[in-house]
Sequence to fold (381 residues):
Amino acid sequence: MKAIIVGCGRVGSTLARMFAESGADVTIIDLTSDAFRRLGKKFRGSRIVGTGTDMSVLERAGIKETNVFVAVTDGDNRNLMATQIAKTVFDVPLVMTRVYDPARAEAYREMGIHTLCTTSIAANLMFDLAGGVPVEAMISELQKTRTGQKEAPTTVTEAQK
Amino acid sequence: MYCIIIGGGNVGYYLTKDLVAAGHEVLLLEKNRTRAAQLIEELGDSAIQGDGCEVRIMEEVGFGRADVIVAVTGEDEDNLVVCQMAKRKFASARTIARVNSPINEPLFAKLGIDTTVSSTRIIFNLIEQEIESDQVVPLAALSKGNLEIVQIELSKQSPIPGKAIADIAMPTGAHIIAVIRENIALLPSPEMRLLANDTVLALVAADREGELRGSFVGSY
Fold:
């Protein structure tokens, strides 16, 4: 599997390491090379300094051969534009993004983009916890660290072929 | 018409002023508080502080009844998302987006934006057209192609207009055979002065075409 991740913040760098450790071919893009420090020295994927909404940068990252495209910069609009380029211009099979604004997340989810809104997720789960809904087990499962384990995390290598 | 403009930079500011002067109802949205305060001071009720991508703001300022939404921020992704959200959430009548990177124009059209404006592309095209009008265009090759008839359109930037034909440093092996001025073909004479917008037809040895181009276009 080949994956492109736009944005090397906390989410982007963690996901890049998970993909790389499970044997995927990963390319990560960020505006500054400084951000790549989060990947650690062992990271074996490619790093590209550039804008994730620039088609020439995406082509350089190998988007034409990519199975999975993830946009996780800290800008909702940048993420939404990058994923739409990946989906409509380059026909990447699986395209997903993280968006903070619930309204934008809903609108683009309806347009067929996998959109995770961490704002809604956190707010909903906290509301459930406060209301005594038994969500603790699910939360701790979702939050397990999956990088740097002896066993490779759930493999993604054969997925999305 | 009710026009909502997103982005209070120079483009948004002057556009708001012009549209207000033309009698339209206009609202300019600017995200940055400092900039917005300046704009409100100058434009009064026609400007407001707010993020045009936020649905709450869109509802407040009446995206639903706007006739046209114009996104002119300096960021293509913001212009794209404002227009898409306007279409999707409010079925806004018409969306116009400024495109900073010309390569994004076809993308925006594909993603449902009604009209895109790229100042980069407009200026680029203007420059390209001026250069092209001084190009030497081959019209016909004679015999085995060692002689060609070529056409040169003289732009204002060319060093030639105002000169008499006898004073043009023509390469050997090149002759002006006709001058077309306002759709009339004229026979050249040594004292005839060439003008901007003239079309010059010349007979030239194929291997001298580059030199001929040098004579007419010069280096500017």
